[in-house]
């Protein structure tokens, strides 16, 4: 009897920990809750270790992730998998063994807030393996340096260096990649790097080989407005909570993490901040860039007075290499045709939607693929035990788009 009672108490405590009120419409809410409980327990454990001075929270998280998730490079009968380097940057290469002699090429940047994750993780390994098989493509998954040791522009420079090497004649010939069929892609913070790479390399006239396509999966693209309708609507939706994104940004840009509440209040982009021009503001003005059905009832949070000087202190906030949404129209217009995936239940939804709109305005052919029941991370978590239907759907559509456009 006492055992049963204790069991019931434990079970309800666990259910209380896992249960989270989620918006109706999100794909398979219980699976998302389980995923969130897993992430939250890791986060909390690493916060405790951080507070106790055991180690930096990011290091503990990365160690746990490596222990659970990083797998050896293992070839299958269909795909040869090797760990190599591209422009000096560690890279896992997936090479289809059969198929055409000349293959498509994809360079991929993993997500994780510029601080977590690896192309050697099970989830990314599975994704890239599947892409290699389904697309008959050589896929290169890049392990760029991570925060807090590396801060902007290190990650960006690694992404550029790896991409330049990828597009070089030596690499294309060595791996039998068709120079007319190469693509840059990534999810979340990796989508940010992919967009930044596409901008930089499309405008570089010294390069002979250009990307044919850019495929951006729920990318993060700006740090000046933490009150877009999607930030407001999804601030408490797992797994990417609004404050977590602000902290990732500060870590990436080398800003003091004590600035987090200020960023969340949009005090860093108040009207008295002279470091942000009217032209820059217009590039992320969602009242003009988003359709009414996404703006809903939300109102812009634009302070008359805030904390001028933060942009001077953290110059990366307005650097287009960190925030691809701030690019000039002319730069956007030179980038290749684009696939932009967005999820309704994701703080970054509007970053992606605004970027798709600005690319379109610049004359780029854009496929905007929106998931009404999607949440941040759903495509890559399609392989976890909590495999969600939206995860599987989005991955299939992403790969189909590449098949038809690359
Ligand atoms: C896989 O690639 C490595 C390195 O390029 C090569 O040495 C090896 O022979 C390849 N294996 C197969 C089965 O093609
Ligand atoms: C960050 O800001 C806090 C509070 O303003 C300050 O005490 C701390 O020294 C700062 N840290 C660094 C590394 O500048
Ligand atoms: C933001 O700025 C306002 C002034 O406009 C100030 O009252 C408020 O305390 C600031 N908030 C933060 C978190 O810095
Ligand atoms: C944003 O666009 C709206 C509608 O075009 C306009 O009324 C508003 O002044 C713009 N705001 C900024 C900050 O540019």
From TrEMBL:
GO terms for cellular component: plasma membrane. It is a single-pass type II membrane protein. GO terms for biological process: lipid catabolic process. Coiled coil: none annotated. It catalyses: cholesteryl (9Z-octadecenoate) + H2O = cholesterol + (9Z)-octadecenoate + H(+); a cholesterol ester + H2O = cholesterol + a fatty acid + H(+); 1-O-hexadecyl-2-acetyl-sn-glycerol + H2O = 1-O-hexadecyl-sn-glycerol + acetate + H(+); a 1-O-alkyl-2-acetyl-sn-glycerol + H2O = a 1-O-alkyl-sn-glycerol + acetate + H(+). SUPFAM superfamilies: alpha/beta-Hydrolases (SSF53474). The keyword Glycoprotein applies. PROSITE patterns: LIPASE_GDXG_SER (PS01174). This is Neutral cholesterol ester hydrolase 1. The lineage of its organism: Eukaryota, Metazoa, Chordata, Craniata, Vertebrata. The gene is NCEH1.
